[in-house]
Amino acid sequence: MRVTSFGGGELYNIIGSQRYDVYQTNGNAWQINTSKNIRMATLELSEFGLNATNIGSVSLMRLTMNNSADTAFLAYNEDSFGEFCTDLDTDGDGVVDRLDLDSDNDGIYDVVEAGHTLTYTNGRLTGSVGSDGIDDTLQGNPNNQTTNYIITDTNSDGTPDFQNLDSDGDGCEDVSEAGFTDENIDGYLGDNPIVVDSNGLVTSGTDGYTEPADVDTSGEYDFKEQGIAPSITTEPSNRNICPGCTGTFSTITADADTFQWQYYSGTNWIDLMEGGLYSGTDSQTLNISNPTAAEDGNQYRLLVSNSTYSCILLTSNVVTLNVRVNTIITNRRITYRVNRN
Questions:
Q1: What's the whole-number mean pLDDT along residues 162-179?
Q2: What is the C-alpha separation between 282 and 43, in angstroms, rounded?
Q3: Nearest residue to 139 via CA among 18, 25, 32
Q4: Are residues 196 and 252 in the same domain?
Q5: Residue 2 falls within a domain, yes or no?
Q6: Tens digits of per-residue pLDDT, 47-89?
Q7: What's the CA gap between 113 and 161, in Å, rounded?
Q8: Which one of 115, 226, 244, 275 is least enclosed by Cβ atoms within 10 Å?
Q9: Is the full-model pTM beyond 0.70?
Q10: Mind listing the pLDDT tens digit for each residue in 29-48?
Q11: Half-sphere exposure of 330 (CA within 13 A, CB side)
Q12: Spatial separation of the C-alpha atoms in residues 36 and 18, rounded to whole Å
């Protein structure tokens, strides 16, 4: 109903008998879903210290719910609610956050990043929804328009996990730590261009929307656990090994738990497997036994990573195996010195 004029201080029913909720200042519900007339009264705008310019663009209402409730005064203009009522679209995919099942497009359902650990299917809670539009499993008292948990902000940076591409703030994006694929390393699931469905879920990726990784089986998802980037403190060096002898390429690392030695085929780097000439192919030290002249000049390198910090894969320096005959040979207590030439 539109009210066009008032008498000074008089009360007018503006929308008749309506349902409303009343809360105390401490947040406790006082009267919920109660029927009452909502009335509006006029008063002087000067009481609020408004100047002539402001008065021309401001509307003011006083709402009286009942005789014992505090009177509420509302002063507003056309800009009053713009900032607060604009729908957020964190990932800019065209689906606003309140309707988006993955508000940051990292491949992890919002229902997981929210932190309540309740049962869900396809990104939605499976409990019954009350008259207040909230799943009852999230409420200690159903239909009171409040929830019984606080949305998780793992690194306490003011941005909740469901809107944060690096929830633990360790420099490694959630999509990677969750075990999903991010081809162009931009923090979003999949490659560009990103395609989403009507629920805001990325459909152009090759994976995502499954249980996030917990590689160290700590009980906490890796995207919520701060990891440490691995480092190589001592690089391997070239080695001379005689035919039929044994030698090693050694590397010293820090904060690493996954290793893979590779050799260069002339066109590609190929992972070494245990057996034959090689042992320790998945450790910091590669052992080479009984090389022949065919292995002379082979090149090797070590890949180093930390399973709980999946964003970084380090590569050691390239080293060369030189198969050389010993310059000193002892046979039956007789020592021979061999000229290299």
A1: 96
A2: 81
A3: 32
A4: no
A5: no
A6: 555 566 655 555 555 555 555 555 555 555 555 545 556 789 9
A7: 5
A8: 275
A9: no
A10: 655 656 555 554 445 555 55
A11: 1
A12: 6
